[in-house]
Amino acid sequence: MAAAAAASAAAAKALTNVPRSVPGLPPGVILLKGYLTMDEQIRIVLQIRELGVGPGGFYTPSYNTGARLSLRMMCMGLHWEPRTSKYEATRSSYDGATPPPIPSWLVELCGRCLGAASAAAAAAGGIQLPPLRPDICLANFYERSGRLGMHQDKDEMPDSLRAGLPVVSLSLGDAADFLYGRTREAEQASSVRLESGDVLVFGGPGRMIFHSVSRVHPHTAPRELLAATGLRPGRLNLTFRQYRARTNAP
Ligand SMILES: O=C(O)CCC(=O)C(=O)O
Ligand SMILES: [Fe+2]
Q: Is 219 assigned a ligand-binding role in the annotation?
């Protein structure tokens, strides 16, 4: 009897330990509200700032039309080039810098986030997401007027996309409206608010969703994060990706 009670208590604890995802999102899209602890958020901001002022750090990218993106970017692992929509080893169109590697603790954190998202998806009766060995991390910093138009993340290799290897996205600082939908039409898209500490994962059948950042909400960053880091007004987003499914391929 006591053993049964202990077992059911353990089961209840295990259940409450499974993070809950926001309901109503498309299959393969999982949002864990407030998953990152304040300590993790502070550590991420300090780490990204340290890398961001070094070689290959934050810059304002441009498209091949010459138009500038409404954000500042730092790539880790591989450089994503907006002029060609391709990944490359160095930032050839700007200063030739080699992107810094992704710090190993961030790779490990990404793994934990994906594990939690997969557990939440399974608990909600959703699909199982494939594992990720991230070798790319893009850091975007949006000021108050920052935004990013509707797009798909489709510049990773076809085998990575076909396998539905997830994108793991971490939000820090000010909140933002994240639009997502099955087409490029922003008017038909749904919107969800991403706040500091939220983890959003899109993989499997959700890997190719169109998405955008339509608006940053000023003065919504957690005070503790600002006090501990001196983060400038705005929003920091990190997206982890895997360039090719078979990492040992030539
Ligand atoms: O800032 C975000 O939440 C999304 C960023 C994004 O879509 C990208 O970097 O491809
Ligand atoms: Fe994206």
A: no
The label of the residue with tokens 């990720």 reads 132
pTM above 0.95, yes or no: no
Q: Report whether 175 contacts 232 (CB < 8 A).
A: no
Run means of pLDDT, 10 residues per run, the chain, 250 residues: 53 62 94 98 98 98 94 98 97 96 98 96 88 98 96 97 98 98 95 98 97 98 98 98 77
Is 73 a pocket residue for ligand 1 (Cβ < 6 Å)?
no
151 is an annotated ligand-binding site residue: yes
Q: Is 41 in the pocket of ligand 1 (CB under 6 A)?
A: no
Where in the chain are the domains? 28-231
The class level of CATH for 28-231 reads mainly beta
User: Is residue 183 within 8 Å of residue 210, measured between CB atoms?
Assistant: yes
- Residue with CA at minimum distance from ligand 1 atom 10: 153
